[in-house]
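> call design_seq(struct)
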């Protein structure tokens, strides 16, 4: 009996020993303290600061777990809310939830300049023209963007002459400003061309239009003072006292046909004067779409071409001596109602500059019954708004760019030359900065291009630009420039006509360096 008791006691001891030797195993892990940081930006690394992870064992014991980077699984590559970070310890996992990942704030890191300004030579007090360069901003997220000129600040001083002048380009984004430099700018003094002694006639008259007939008479259209026929021996005024003409209308344009009939564009239509009788044509007695004529041209067949239009109304009118024909966008290939210029080339093709809206400018070529329309794709640039057009002796079309509707500070180019296939754009310099519109021009027999915009006037001679002296017309605004058959240049102004006897200018009198091919 005693031996049995001893055996039982021994067995109990063995069982207790065996039980006390059972293996302790990991049951689970849990995040017992959340991390301090729960909001991240895209691309950030998870921060374990403040986080406690505890391992729980089968014997109900607990132990702190040291978390390392290789134990973490998460994706912060995209923004989002309720992101999850998974912690893996041995074969057990726990999660941190409700993590927010936001897009990082993009900041400006630098700007770069590519290309080079088409204009590197300036006159004193001109403004810098950035055409030709491209400014690119580089951001903290490695993205890039081209910056428009109007978002940039150009820092420079063109108040004195010099060479290798630097222009600093700056751009500010979210309070951060970065700069880049353009070097190699030259600044010189401008030379004003002195027209010399000018003959003046019709003091006190505002002269709006001038035309010449085959007999050498000058026909002068005024604002509010009728029509004048002038030659060196005789002057005749046509006004309400001796004609049907009203003294309150403005003569917008004039042309003389092959029979020396004078065609006079006014706000009530067009007058024809055959030397004895005035005849008024308008929408009441012709196919003319509008009772106004802005521009007139005559081709070699003696067809009269007229711009009879308003904004989005009217169009082109042709009179062949018998019939009147109106062309509008509704019945022809005319791309817009508004016509800003009419001219005839050396092959007797009729050309129009047209467009109702800014940045939608067209040229139209009419060859008998064929119409060809040219637009910005053909020009290689986008003209802001067309003005006057004329042909030079090489049969190249010159066109003025009209910026009178623009509120921007950078208005270039002022001119373009179009040969039917490509265009070259020309800048007249910043002395036109107060001239919103290049009002008009005329090309003389030497291919000198005389330009005017009110009180700002100049001339292109052999691809060299010069400003006409500001005192040339005693401050009077120029409204029209024409060349007569004796090659005298007539300047119609707000106070009479100034006549330059001839045009024997020399290149030495002209400041060069301001013709640019502004293809952009």
């Amino acid at each position: 009996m005693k031996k049995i008791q001893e055996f039982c006691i021994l067995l109990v001891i063995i069982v207790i020993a065996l039980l006390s030797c059972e293996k302790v195993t990991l049951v689970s892990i849990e995040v017992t303290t959340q991390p301090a940081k729960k909001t991240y930006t895209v691309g950030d690394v998870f921060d374990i600061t403040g986080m406690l992870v505890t391992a729980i064992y089968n014997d109900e014991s607990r132990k702190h777990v040291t978390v390392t980077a290789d134990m973490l699984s998460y994706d912060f590559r995209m923004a989002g809310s309720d992101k999850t970070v998974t912690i893996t310890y041995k074969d057990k996992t726990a999660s941190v939830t409700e993590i927010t990942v936001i897009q990082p704030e993009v900041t400006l890191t630098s700007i770069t300049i590519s290309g080079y300004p088409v204009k590197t030579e300036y006159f004193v007090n001109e403004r810098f023209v950035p055409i030709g360069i491209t400014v690119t901003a580089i951001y903290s997220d490695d993205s890039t963007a081209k910056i428009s000129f109007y978002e940039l600040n150009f820092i420079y001083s063109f108040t004195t002459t010099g060479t290798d002048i630097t222009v600093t380009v700056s751009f500010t984004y979210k309070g951060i400003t970065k700069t880049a430099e353009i070097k190699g700018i030259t600044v010189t003094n401008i030379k004003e061309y002195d027209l010399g002694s000018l003959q003046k006639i019709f003091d006190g008259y505002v002269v709006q239009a001038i035309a010449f007939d085959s007999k050498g008479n000058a026909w002068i259209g005024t604002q509010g003072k009728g029509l004048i026929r002038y030659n060196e021996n005789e002057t005749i005024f046509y006004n309400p006292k001796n004609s049907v003409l009203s003294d309150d209308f403005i003569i917008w344009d004039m042309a003389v046909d092959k029979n020396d009939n004078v065609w006079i564009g006014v706000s009530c239509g067009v007058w024809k004067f055959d030397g004895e009788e005035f005849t008024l044509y308008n929408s009441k007695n012709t196919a003319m779409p509008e009772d106004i004529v802005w521009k007139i041209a005559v081709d070699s067949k003696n067809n009269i071409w007229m711009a009879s239009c308003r904004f989005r109304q009217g169009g082109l009118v042709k009179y062949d001596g018998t019939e009147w024909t109106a062309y509008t966008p509704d019945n022809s290939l005319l791309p817009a109602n508004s016509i800003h210029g009419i001219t005839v080339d050396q092959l007797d093709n009729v050309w129009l500059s047209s467009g109702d809206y800014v940045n939608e400018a067209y040229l139209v070529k009419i060859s008998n019954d064929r119409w060809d329309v040219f637009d910005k794709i053909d020009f290689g640039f986008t003209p802001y708004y067309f003005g006057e057009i004329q042909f030079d002796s090489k049969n190249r079309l010159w066109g003025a760019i009209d910026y009178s509707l623009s509120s921007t500070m950078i208005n270039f180019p002022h001119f373009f030359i179009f040969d039917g296939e490509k265009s070259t754009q020309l800048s007249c310099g910043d002395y036109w900065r107060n001239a919103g519109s290049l009002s008009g021009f005329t090309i003389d027999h030497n291919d000198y291009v005389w330009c005017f915009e009110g009180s700002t006037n100049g001339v292109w001679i052999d691809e060299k630009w010069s400003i006409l002296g500001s005192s040339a017309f005693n401050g009077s605004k120029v409204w029209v420039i024409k060349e007569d058959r004796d090659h005298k240049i007539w300047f119609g102004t707000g106070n009479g006509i100034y006549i330059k006897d001839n045009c024997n200018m020399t290149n030495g009198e002209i400041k060069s360096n301001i013709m640019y091919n502004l293809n952009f």
